[in-house]
Amino acid sequence: MAWITITVNGERIEREVDPSRTLAQFLRLDLGLTGTKIGCEEAECGICTVQVNGTPVDSCIYPLMKARNAEVVTIEGLATGEKLHPLQEAFIEQGAVQCGYCTPGLIMNAKALLERNPDPTDHDIRVALKDTFCRCTGYMAVRRAIHAAAAAQRGEPMPAYPAPTTVEPLEVIGQNVDRPESVAKVTGAAKFTDDYGFPGMLYGLTLRSPHPHARVLRVDTGQAKAVPGVRAVLCHEDIPGRNIHGLVYLDWPCLAGDKVRYVGDPVAIVAADTEEAARQALDLIEVQYEVLGTVGDPVYARTPEAPVIHEEWETGNLLKHIKVRHGDIERGFAEADVIIERTYRTPTIEHAYLEPECSIGVPAGYDAEHEKITIYVGSQIPYQDRNQVALILGVADEDVRIRGTLIGGGFGGKEDLAAQAHVALLAQATGRPVKMLYTRHESLLFHPKRHATVIRMKTGAKRDGTLVAVEAELYGDGGAYASLSDKVMTRATTHATGPYVVPNAKIDCYAMYTNNVPSGAFRGFGVTQSAFAVESNMDILAETLGIDPLELRRKNAQRVGVMTATGQTLRESAGLLETIEKVEADVRSEDTSSHGFRWSWREGNRAFGWGIACAYKNTGLGGGAPDKSAVEVEAFEDSTAEVRTAAADLGQGIGMVVAQVAAQELGMPYSSMRVLLCDTDLTPNGGPTTASRQTFVTGNAARMAASTLREALRSTAAEHYNVPPEQIRFEEGLMRINGHSVPLGEVVGVMKANGLQPRATFEYMAPVTQPLGTGGDMHFAFSYATQAALVEVDLETGAVHVHRVIAGTDVGRAINPKSLQGQIEGGIVMALGNCLTEQYIIENGQPWSTLFARYKMPSIKHAPEITSHIIEHPSSDGPYGAKGVGEIPSINTTPAIANAIYHATGVRVFSIPVDQDALVRALRRGDREIYTTWSDVR
Amino acid sequence: MKKLWNEYHTPQTVEEASALLASYAGAARVIAGGTDLILEMEQGHKPPVAALVDVTAIQELTTIRQEGELVTVGAGVTHTQLVGSTLLAARATCLVESCGVVGGPQVRNVATLGGNIAHALPAADGTTSLMALDAEAEIAQHGTRRWLPLVELFSGPGQSLLDSTRDLLLNVRFRLAGPREASAFKRIMRPQGVALPVLGCAVWLRLAPDSLAVEDARVCISPVAPVPARATEVEAALRGQPFCEALVEAAVEAGRASLHPRTSKYRATAEYRTEMIDVLLRRTLPLAFERARTGVAIPEGVGM
Ligand SMILES: Cc1cc2nc3c(=O)[nH]c(=O)nc-3n(C[C@H](O)[C@H](O)[C@H](O)COP(=O)(O)OP(=O)(O)OC[C@H]3O[C@@H](n4cnc5c(N)ncnc54)[C@H](O)[C@@H]3O)c2cc1C
Ligand code: FES
Ligand code: FES
């Protein structure tokens, strides 16, 4: 131990400390200041930034003892009482807070910047925030917020949020209200799972397979159990229930029994008093493996010589063959004047949410609040966590309680079980609470990712550009376990014609088991991959036929009345043409070359080009899966109301959406609403946060629940005040009855006095859909998008920079334009990463990208200026016309950029991420096509 | 994060630091900013230690001192401190340009020039510029202090004469740019993977007093060898020649003929690196020349 004097947020502290602590550990563990977040412990993500004597540093690798006698300021030190710091205020006002996990780091860096530079330029902001990542916002709102706060600090009025143009808002719907937890997120008070702790809590760790494919012959935990401080060491034999989980197919052992199937597969788990003891125990677990042949890629997986990964699976390594058949493919190609056929490759992509996975298990009977086994976790599907954990524990679903915490981003990567079952097992075995916090390394290693694909795409068209046939073959790398591969690759397949009318289609997709990290849900759900192939082929077609790329898309665009390749007739809400129109008007008015609009131009060694791409994406599960959600709304005598549902808010803002909807229906101010999410004992099932479904499905449930409650209030009031029910209006939290205003709470009181519960629950069932192949409606709604990207390519170095993205997005109805815009901007920058910076590299089953230092998401330096047009073609079943928005913006940015690079350079990229090395080599050699990528540089 | 050290010392003098290291007999290690060291220990590339000896409180190591035409930069000077020095910006411009692109602001606020050198990576940005500045390094080893040419410090990738469990890097020194002298640094990065340059290039030029001829030149392009090295053939091609486009091309030719960068996995192909030698020389030489000719040097690209 050592003695330290340090001032933290103005308070002088003198105490004994463990000198091996980092500053972050001291702040979080010793002082309980959990506002400082940990994303990587690698000095990469920057979200752990605090100020030491005014200077921003990464507290995660800053030795505490360096801060002796220093003044440290953390996010908790900014607000004075209730009064927020201008940066905190501006981050909320400008929509720079989504999941909020990065927010403390961004604000602390911005604060240091403004102290040095009261009027920073955009460039200054980019320099200051270059290594502080945000995966949600796309950085546009962050820049706006910093400019706004700077203005306020200079004594100027704080600029208001520049709202996009949308249809006339209602009282609450369409208004730019802020998420209920936004103040907590900017002050550091917001609690994510790792911010919780319980007396006597143990530290849990997981032993993972080092082999991509091996038989497990023996697991010996004897020596590990003998380590002092170790409370439990468990392997597959210790599982009381069934040793299996999975979201679609039960094929993933909770702890490997007979085999391990990828590097990172869990084999054993440990709980101990300290991290050191747990680590020591991990080292002492002996596992004897018999190494088996590795299946490293999905094409090899389908060959007869490939080792079989799941012996029990009837079709071997073929997880699923997915087919779309439409029209007569041979006749289609016979009618074609031009046929374009190319093969595209997309890599495995990591979600890179800034909050690594964390779960805490509290044993049944631990205290009055924890009568049953309780798991604290930030999960996308609380109710499926519950039934998977129950299955593994061998107990009834109702005997398990999932309590959702705030979630620091998910994007699809927090759907499968992480440590939920492991902490439950350890908590039950030890009778103590157990926390498992994954390191970034562990998170990168284990959780399911976006499928790598190989896509052969053949497009046939008539001379005038009319599409006549599409034939495609897709291989999807599903990895070691099924996860959501079946569904994801189905979406890749059904969307493989693009948002166009294609009378004849034959599409085959092979979702394959391999010994790579499993693949699962990822924003875009397979459509991101097929869109790259579709939209690149469309551009090649446009050039071949000498048709303007925008014109070709307009000519073939889906619209009301046409049929999709799965046989669905679109009856409404297909706003693609308007998205093209809006984007085209903007692009064509850009006089960037000083000669009027051009697709490309040069300035010395710099080549500029615009590229365009369209996309569509279903809302909801579709394909015949029952899609339902339940919401409970309760009103109180103080004229407030609470909305309850187990629908996970990953930062996209579903909590805010249901509160807005309920407020609108009850005629209450938004500020009177509270939200309780994701407690399986207190909130009804909202279903998974996936498939852009929450606003539509849970939004509708909230609408119905709130209107049911409103009608109950109405009839009580009608009777009590003796007026006809239709004469009662609900406004501003009041009930207007015959010229009088009665607070809503008063009627709540009357209901209670009459023995009625001022509460309503509604389970909403979305319109029925049909399975693929039946020709009916596979989906109840689609969102549409067009994007144009302006890139600059340095012809000497191959470096690509995206300057502008113009987006038109048909979302049905903007429930909250500010948060919608955040989804669009964040989705675009995420997709920019997919195209330019990201790839999760696996070398024949051995992952290489197991550090943030090796996996780069876009930083503020890469973030383009984004203009987004919101287009509202209402969906009649959606709440107020809304349909999904979560995924649509991150689908077509990749091909828009790739097409822009082609226009700029004359070189087309068939494999992403774009490799500047290969681009320069192609330019030197005069090659026009690149089939290699970054991972081929070796 | 695992426990990587037990004790933490913050000596105030070089003697104290050396004595502390000696007392641990190899079980303690020097830490400066820790931005390389802590990650290397965390990731298992270096073993945990009994103690860390922090050199950033030793005053001698944290100052930038001008002594006539020479400047001495303490090993514990941070990149931020260095970039903020108007003296270095004007008269050791390449060093400011290279230290200005190390990591992001939070890293530059703690990471030191000494750590950049001591880590001994051939691609280390600060080192590349110090090579072009023909720097010397002062080290404390076996109880004595001595100066040696920086280049002699390096023995292989990640290896140097310094054993950071015993020895200290104290200072580096080099001549400031005088009249008709200037330097420039640029590097090529890729947006994917590790934050080390694909290739970095620092050049230093002295023009003849009364003509546009290059009187002397020093060039360092890294990584092209296991240790940082001067591009002597390129320098030879430049020396004594009037500066013009053709001279830059001659330098490029000499670079092509004499430098043979390798392909390194997930960073760059040899072919690309070879192309980048051309590009970097074409970008840095005219820049350094203009600075030398006009006597005005404003660092470019700092922070990005
Ligand atoms: C996110 C990130 C980005 C980075 N980007 C770059 C980049 O772009 N370019 C680049 O060149 N580097 C980069 N680095 C690497 C690193 O930050 C720099 O090399 C930095 O200068 C190291 O300095 P430090 O003070 O942190 O060294 P430390 O980590 O403290 O030390 C490094 C090594 O040198 C030894 N050492 C340090 N000082 C002395 C001394 N005075 N005497 C004897 N031994 C000593 C230590 O024992 C250790 O072995 C990056 C690092 C991170 C985390
Ligand atoms: S940089 Fe500290 S947690 Fe990522
Ligand atoms: S809001 Fe920035 S990471 Fe989620």
Q: Any overview of this molecule?
A:
- With 938 residues, chain A is α+β, with helices and mostly antiparallel strands.
- Chain A has 23 helices and 36 strands.
- Chain A starts with a strand and ends in an 8-residue tail after the last strand.
- The relative contact order of chain A is 0.11.
- With 304 residues, chain B is an alpha+beta fold.
- In chain B, helix 5 packs antiparallel against helix 8, helix 9 packs antiparallel against helix 10 and helix 10 packs antiparallel against helix 11.
- The longest helix of chain B is centred in the last third of the chain and has 25 residues.
- The radius of gyration of chain B is 19 Å and the shape is globular.
- The interface between A and B is large, with 59 and 50 residues.
- The structure holds flavin-adenine dinucleotide (FAD) and FE2/S2 (inorganic) cluster (2 copies).
- The site of flavin-adenine dinucleotide (FAD) has 29 residues of chain B, from strand 2, helix 7 and strand 10.
- One FE2/S2 (inorganic) cluster binds next to loops of chain A.
Output mean pLDDT of chain B: 97
Under the CATH scheme, the architecture of the largest domain in chain B is 2-Layer Sandwich
Bound small molecules, deduplicated: flavin-adenine dinucleotide, FE2/S2 (inorganic) cluster
Helical segment tally of chain A? Answer: 23
Strand order of the biggest β-sheet of chain A: 8-10-6-17-14-15-16
> In this structure, how is the largest beta sheet of chain B organized?
5 strands, antiparallel
Would you tell me the structural class of the helices and strands of chain B? alpha+beta
Order of helices and strands of chain B: EHEHEEEHHHHHHEEEEEEEEHHH
Low-confidence stretches of chain B: none
CATH-assigned fold name of the largest domain in chain A = Aldehyde Oxidoreductase, domain 4
